[in-house]
Amino acid sequence: MPIIQPDTRLQGQVIAVTGADQGYGRTISAALARAGADVVLIGGNSETLAAHASSIETASARSGSGGSAIPIKADVDVPLDWRSAQNRVLEIFGVLHGVVHLADKRAKGSFATLSEGEWTELFNCNVKSSVSITQAVRRSLPQTWLTLIGPHLDEQGLHVWPQRGALRGLVEGASIEELRANLLLPARASGSEEAADRPLAEAVLTLALPALRHLRGNVMEVPMPPLPYPRGSDPNALPAALLER
């Protein structure tokens, strides 16, 4: 049998991923580690972060990729929390090459039914956090790249358009200040299977490659395959005939 060489495309890179213990963040952080990166898992649940870090390190040991995973609990909607997390990363690794920020919180209802508190929460999670992280990077880590994952293209309420517009303006303006920032817009929300979300993870990984460090200020739509089951359902509980469709 041919010897399968470990993937080392991102070996030596330290990359922080927000929302890393769920949805797209989980898939992206696992993919970056498989490519050899040391990933910092940032999220709000210590237990799920630790469990995901353990699974990443087990997979890395099996594949020989060398990627490690460090969990850090932080609420990135709060600027002080992000700065504390960023400082912690620098204490551990001495460097932070890139940040993947999940700015893709979805509304629970239609635009017409959203309360002021609900749309304020959306803008805090998606826009305010992105501006805060970009500011922190600009102040102390201007060589660090930033990839934002914006609101999914299958969400069409009026509340989504100003969020996408703000994020687009942020990455385009960042390029003027010579910050390496890009925005990815996946075609749909995350599924519960890593294979279904792989195209977005591959797009993030590609932007992280040192050879593409010149790419900045781009807004890219990422086509995604349709899910084999209704979004939000448990595939293990669905009839086999539905999963085979």
Word description of this protein:
By secondary structure, this protein is of the alpha/beta class. It has one domain (14-243): 3-Layer(aba) Sandwich (Rossmann fold). It is built from 7 helices and 7 strands; from the N terminus they run E-H-E-H-E-H-E-H-E-H-E-H-E-H. It has helices spanning 23-34, 46-63, 79-93, 116-140, 160-176, 198-208, 240-243; strands at residues 14-18, 38-43, 69-73, 98-102, 145-149, 181-186, 219-222. It has a 7-stranded parallel beta sheet, sandwiched between helices. Helix 6 (198-208) links the parallel strand 6 and strand 7. Helix 4 runs parallel beside helix 5. It is globular, with a radius of gyration of 18 Å.
> Helix/strand-derived class?
alpha/beta
The overall pLDDT average reads: 89
Strand numbers in spatial order across the main sheet = 3-2-1-4-5-6-7
Q: Report how far apart the termini are.
A: 34 Å
Q: Low-confidence parts, pLDDT < 50 over ≥5 residues?
A: 234-245
At the fourth level of CATH, the homologous superfamily is: NAD(P)-binding Rossmann-like Domain
Throw out a few tags for this protein.
alpha/beta, 245 residues, 7 strands, disordered C terminus, 42% helix
Briefly summarize what is shown.
Helices cover 42% and strands 15% of the residues. With 245 residues, the chain is an alpha/beta fold.
Topology record:
Layout: E1 14-18, H1 23-34, E2 38-43, H2 46-63, E3 69-73, H3 79-93, E4 98-102, H4 116-140, E5 145-149, H5 160-176, E6 181-186, H6 198-208, E7 219-222, H7 240-243
